[in-house]
Amino acid sequence: MVSKAKNAIEGFFAMLFCGMSAITLSPSSNYMSLVPPRGTSITKEGWQLTGNAMWEAVNKAGSNIGRKG
Asked: pTM for the whole thing?
């Protein structure tokens, strides 16, 4: 019984210390450099991609109109 409790406590502390070692207060990577300063650029790029996809779909559908297949 004591052995199970001791193993459980040791396992808990091992998990705790492994988890703490993965967390740093000063990360080595600057992930904010990948985020644009303004959200409008993200929106503009998204609409551009949507517009391009729609344009391609319309052109593809237009070239198939009247064809018998």
From this structure: 0.43
